[in-house]
Design goal:
The structure is a homodimer.
Chain A lengths: L15 H15 L6 E2 L11 H13 L16 H12 L11 E4 L2 H7 L10 E5 L3 H9 L6 E2 L2 E2 L2 E5 L17 E5 L11 H14 L2 E5 L25 E6 L1 H4 L7 E4 L5 E3 L5 E3 H12 L5 H9 L3 H27 L3 E4 L5 E5 L4 H12 L1 E2 L1 E2 L10 E5 L4 H15 L1
Parallel strand pairs in A: 1-15, 3-6, 3-7, 7-8, 8-9
Antiparallel strand pairs in A: 2-10, 4-5, 9-10, 11-12, 13-14, 14-17, 16-17
Helix pairs in contact in A: 2-9, 3-9, 4-5, 10-12, 11-12
Catalytic activity (chains A, B): (2S,6S)-2,6-diaminopimelate + 2-oxoglutarate = (S)-2,3,4,5-tetrahydrodipicolinate + L-glutamate + H2O + H(+)
Organism (chains A, B): Oleiharenicola lentus
Cofactor (chains A, B): pyridoxal 5'-phosphate
C-alpha cells in the first residue's frame, strides 16, 4: 500500500496569496463596478525591457535555423550568462565569484525550495519571522519540523524582526546550522548594514553553520553604504550561498530566470566530521533534477548586462522606487510608522491593529489590495506590506483612496 | 555543525552522459581532423517548428506592452495550454482528463525527479532495468535505497527488460508501492501493448500501488494498436500519473516545457489507512516550489495543437522516424538483433559484447557516438542505444562508417 509523505499534513491548509485572492474575488463579485488596485502580491507590472525583448526575438530566430538551433544546454546555464553575472554582479563590486560557482535556474522560489535537499534531515534551522513562506514550508515538507503549534512550527529557531530591532534580527543565543536571511527584506523592505551581516558571518563560522542569503531585491538598494551581496562581507565565501533573481531586477516574473551562487569554499560535514564541498552536492542535485533554463530566456537575461540593458533596468527600478517613496510618505503622513521603500520595493506599515482587519479595511473602503503581515508569520501581526509594483497613476489613485478611507 | 544529506554519498560518482562526453572530448582532442557524428544523447537537432517560433515572437511582443504584459502566471500553467492538452492529447483519444488535472512544468526530468517527494520515505520501489537514470538517482538522494552493491541499489525491485521478455517486463511476484514505467521506452524503444499495460494497472490496483507512466515519446507511436497514454487502459485513472514532454514532440529540449497528469481519483494512504488524493499533495508541492513556466514558452507549446502545428510536428517526427528505420535496418543487416525505431526514436542494439567496448569501437573506428547500454543498468550490458535525432545526411554517413568499421 502506497503511503503519503505525512509531513504535508503539518502544513497550514492554504497559502497566503490564495487566501487573499479569495477575499478579493469575493469583493469583486459583490462590487463589480468598483475597480481594485493591487498592491499586494509583489508582481511587476511594467513592460519587459526592450533589450530583453530584442534578445528573445533574436534567440527565437536562432532556433529556426539548423546551424544555430539549441537543444539541451548545460544544466548549470550557458557560459555567456554565468560569465556576465560573475563580471557585472560580483567582480564589479569587488566580490570574488567564479562563473562556475553560479547556477542558472528558472526561479529563486525553486532554488530556495530545493536547496534544503542537500542537507541532512536533522539540521537546526534559523528562519526570520516575518518571512517569505517558502523557506519554512519546504522544510516542513521535508520533515525538519514538528507540528504547527499556535502559528509556529516546533524545531525552528525563529529570528524575530520587530520594531524594537528595526526589523533586522541579531544572531541567536543558541547554535543553529542553516540560516535563512533576506536583505533587502521581503516582506519588510528593511536592509542590513555591513556590520550586521558581518555578525551573521562570524556566527556562522563559529557554529560551522551555513547562511542562505536571499538578495532578490538587491537592485533596489540606493544607499551606497548598504551591501548588495553577502560576499561583500569578509569570510562570507566560506559560509554563505546567495540567491538572486531577474524577476524584480528586470521584470522577469513571467519570463523566469534566476541564479544561485555556491562558492566552492563552502562545506558541510558528514557524520564522521569530514568536510564536503556543497558545490559538488548542489551540482549533482541540479544536474539530476533540472535540465537548464530556456535558451531564449537566458539570452534575455544576459541582455540586461549591456550598457543599454543597465539603463533600461535602472529606469524600471527607479520607477518602482519612486512609487515606493510616494507610498511610504503617504502612509507616514497618515500617522503610521514605516520601514522599507527606500532601498526596497516594499513598505512595511506598522498599523497598530489586526493585520487582516486592516487588509479588509483597505479592500472594502479603498478597493486597494495589500498583504496582511500575519500571513508572513507571528511577528508580522499588526503590519501590512504594500508593494510599489504598479503604474504611477494606480499608486497615486490608491494612496488618495487610502487617505480618504482612513481619515 | 551543519551536516550533508549522506544519501548523496551512495550515488555512483558520475553521470552517464558526463562519462561519454569525457571519452568523446578526449578522442576529439587527439583526432581534431576526424568529425564526430553524435547519435548518443537523445537530443533533437532540427529547427523549432515555425508555429512555435511565431508564438514566441508574438508573446515577446505582448511582454512589451503594459496592457498585455504577463507577470507571475498560475504555477500550474495557463488555462490556454492546459485546455489544449486536455482536448487534443486526451479527449481526442477517448481519455477523460480534466484541464486542472494537468500541471505544466519546465521539463519531465524535473517532474520525474520531484514526484517522489510527496510519498513516504519507505515506499517500495519498482524500477525497470535498463532505465533513464533519473528515476533511480532521485530516490537514492531521498534515502529510499540502501548502498549500491554490484551495480544495483539495495531496496529496489528491478524490473528486468531482456531479450527473453521482449524488453517489456511482467509484473513482479512481490508487492511494491511505486512503479516507474516508460513506453515507448527510453533507452530500448520498446512499446507496451494494451494487454501488457492492463496487467500493470491490475497489479497496481491489487497492491494499492501507484504507476508513474513516462510517455515522453508517445508522439513516435505509429502502430495503431499501441496505446499512447496509460489512460487508454480501463481503471488507470485510479492508479496512474503520466509524464509528457514537448522536448521530443516539438523539438523543445532547449526551449523547455512538459506536463504531468495527476487525476483527482488517484490516492495514497496515511499510516492510519486513510486515503488522500495525490492531486492535492502535488498541487501543494508544485505551487510551493515552482513558479510556472515562462509565458512565451507556454504560448509556443500551445501552438503545436493548431492544425499547422500538428502538420509541422508531424513532419518533424516523420523525419526522425525515417532516420530510425534506416538505423534499425542497417544494424539488422550487420547481423545485430534490434528493438525500437519503429514506434520510438531509439534503436536498442543487442551487440553481443561489452557495451562500453562497442561504444569505443564505434567512436574510434567510425567516429560515431552511441550510448553504452551498461550506463542504463545491469540489463543494459551487451547493448547500445542509437538515437535517430540527427540530419538525414549525418545518419547516412554514420551508418556507412559503422558498416565499414564492423565489416
Amino acid at each position: 500500500m502506497i503511503r503519503i509523505n505525512e509531513n504535508y499534513t503539518k502544513l497550514k491548509a492554504s497559502y497566503l496569496f490564495a487566501d487573499i485572492a479569495k477575499r478579493v474575488n469575493a469583493y469583486v463579485a459583490a462590487n463589480p463596478s468598483k475597480p481594485i488596485i493591487r498592491l499586494g502580491i509583489g508582481d511587476v507590472t511594467e513592460p519587459l525591457p526592450q533589450v530583453c525583448r530584442d534578445a528573445l526575438h533574436a534567440a527565437t530566430d536562432e532556433l529556426g535555423q539548423r546551424a544555430t538551433f539549441k537543444g539541451y544546454g548545460p544544466e548549470q546555464g550557458y557560459a555567456f550568462l554565468r560569465d556576465a553575472i560573475a563580471q557585472h554582479d560580483y567582480a564589479a563590486r569587488g566580490c570574488k565569484i567564479e562563473s562556475d560557482e553560479i547556477f542558472i535556474s528558472d526561479g529563486s522560489k525553486c532554488d530556495c525550495g530545493n536547496i534544503q535537499e542537500i542537507f541532512s534531515h536533522d539540521v537546526r534551522l534559523a528562519i526570520p519571522d516575518p518571512v517569505y513562506p517558502v523557506y519554512v514550508d519546504t522544510n516542513v515538507m521535508a520533515g525538519r519540523t514538528g507540528a504547527n503549534v499556535d502559528g509556529r512550527y516546533q524545531g525552528i529557531t525563529y529570528l524575530e524582526c520587530t520594531p524594537a530591532n528595526g526589523y533586522v534580527p541579531a544572531v541567536p543565543s543558541v547554535a543553529t546550522d542553516l540560516i535563512y536571511l533576506c536583505f533587502p527584506n521581503n516582506p519588510t523592505g528593511a536592509v542590513a548594514t555591513k556590520a550586521q551581516l558581518a555578525a551573521w558571518v562570524a556566527y556562522a563560522k563559529a557554529n560551522k553553520a551555513i547562511i542562505l542569503f536571499d538578495s532578490a531585491y538587491e537592485a533596489y538598494i540606493r544607499d551606497p553604504q548598504i551591501p548588495h551581496s553577502i560576499y561583500e562581507i569578509e569570510g562570507a565565501r566560506d559560509v554563505a550561498l546567495e540567491f538572486r533573481s531577474f524577476s524584480k531586477t528586470a521584470g522577469f516574473t513571467g519570463t523566469r530566470c534566476a541564479y544561485l551562487v555556491v562558492p566552492k569554499t563552502v562545506v558541510a560535514y558528514d557524520v564522521a566530521g569530514n568536510a564536503h564541498p556543497i558545490h559538488a552536492l548542489w551540482n549533482r542535485r541540479h544536474s539530476t533534477k533540472f535540465n537548464g533554463v530556456s535558451y531564449p530566456v537566458q539570452k534575455a537575461a544576459a541582455a540586461i548586462y549591456t550598457e543599454a540593458g543597465k539603463q533600461q533596468t535602472g529606469a524600471l527600478i527607479n520607477h518602482y522606487l519612486a512609487n515606493a517613496k510616494l507610498i511610504r510618505d503617504a502612509m507616514t503622513k497618515l500617522g503610521f510608522s514605516c520601514v522599507g521603500g527606500d532601498n526596497a520595493p516594499y513598505i512595511w506599515v506598522n498599523t497598530g491593529r489586526d493585520s487582516w482587519q486592516f487588509f479588509d479595511t483597505l479592500l472594502n473602503q479603498a478597493q486597494v489590495v495589500c498583504t496582511p503581515g500575519a500571513g508572513f508569520g507571528k511577528c508580522g501581526e499588526g503590519h501590512v506590506r504594500i508593494s510599489a509594483f504598479n503604474s504611477r497613476e494606480n499608486v497615486e489613485t490608491a494612496l488618495a483612496r487610502i487617505a480618504a478611507a482612513l481619515k
